[in-house]
Amino acid sequence: MRFFFFISLLFFGLLLRELSEALPAGQDADTPPRGWNSYDSFSWIISEEDFLRNAEIISHSLLAHGYKYVVVDFLWYRRNVDGSSVDSAGYDVIDEWGRVIPDPDRWPSSKGGKGFSEVAKKAHAMGLKFGIHVMRGISTQAVNANTPILDITKGGPYEESGKQFNAHDIGRGDRACSWMSQCFTLVDTNSGAGKAFLRSLYHQYAAWGVDFVKHDCIFGDDLDVDEIRTVSEILRELDRPIVYSISPGTHATPAMAKNVNNFVNMYRITADDWDKWEDVAGHFSVSRDFANGGMIGASGLQGKSWPDLDMLPLGQLTDPGAKEGPHRLSNLSLDEQRTQMTLWSMAKSPLMFGGDAREIDMSTYSLITNPVLLEINSFSTNNMEFPYISGSKVQSGKGVHTKQSRSLKDETILDTGVLVPTSCMDQNSHLCASVKTDHVSTSEALSWIATGRKGEVYLAFFNLSPDRMVMSTNITDFTMKLPGRDWSKASCRYQEVFSEKDNAIVNKAISQEIETHSCALFVLDCN
Fold first, then answer.
1. How confident is the model over 83-116, as pLDDT tens digits?
2. Closest of 229, 218, 152 to residue 189, by C-alpha
3. Cα of 409 vs its chain's centroid, Å
4. Which one of 101, 259, 419, 461 is at 20 to 30 Å from 212 when CA atoms are compared?
5. Do the Cβ atoms of 64 and 20 come closer than 8 Å?
6. d(CA 39, CA 27)
7. Taking Cα atoms as reference points, which of 207, 194, 145, 199 lies closest to residue 165?
């Protein structure tokens, strides 16, 4: 069965390469970058064979939908042997200049000083772009070995005023990475030697054919603007564009991001996101804050920059920090996965699928390739939280759900989703029920709004509560977030994306019953 599934993916992938949405020409980060990252499914132990097999599947099944980056996440230079772990010192492979290079046991094509060049060539031949994860500063292993620093302008050790500078001279022991303190520390970017070391790193990545760099332990609680700025300046001088992503985003704020957005293309705004409902729910408030701060699509390195909500932990996964590959399914329910993908799209976050592509199932594939969600993610504007909504827990009685709210206090919501005034019905009829208020917290009933490139309006309802809920809004309230037209006279035809149900023309209100932790997404055509 799996064979026929992947054959169908290959067929549709080839077909959709011609039919997929046309992403704008120019810089790769003009729209939120999209791709696959190895961390959620392989932690740090991925091998060349596993990576290239995943890349092949991405090329055949997801490239047509804009998923063009394949990224090796952290510790590709660490030997996978007894005793090695995320924060174990002394297991990294480094060259004579103190630069980490791929572990040859896991990445055999790197032997002979080739680095990732052979892997990058194969990714490029698949039509993909190749990315790697890197850490801040310099390896403590290089500092302890006091390796010389390469001056790329002359191809030998860096010297200044007759002195040769080594790793001891640039490593800042007072600024070790907070979550990998045994292994990496900042370099002194105020010194010529520190800048020379970073320049040798990123020129090497470019020589390998790298198109995307995820620079870690450099943002959020680990912020170092000087190194971010220095790396950005080095990337500008390269002869190939490299998308620049920074992380993690623990306690990141819009004010913090405004110090660095011009230097980067992506910046994480949360801690690591895993397949827990609390993680998904925790992204709503921070997404709102960055949208309100005008940070979605703000200026960036040779293009734009995007607040990053982290990878999508869907499909076959591993565990955080584990020393094993994919071995379990995502713990998120299908409704929760839909909520995550919808928020990521409405907030225009980069979309980096994290599951094992070799084992992708049809529900995951259908969700992450949903054409409406991808259209919103790439091309919508005016993306923001829409607070003019109401939500009430479902009150069931003879097939009728009732609620009372600020917006819809004189209406009853039927199972069909049609709005009818309570006054039009016999209150003794099985079609009617008495109104009973049972409001939920505004932190549990949330909504986002955006506009499309053809004038359509996207409206998403999110039920974060543990109960089913009826959520509603008045079309006239669109004026609060989408001024410039008379919404009091608007008439809208709308479709709910996930049910694929077309609804009648409405000119007052939209309501929908939504399961716990689920969402509804409407596309409205209004005149």
1. 999 999 999 999 999 999 999 999 999 999 999 9
2. 229
3. 39
4. 259
5. yes
6. 26
7. 194
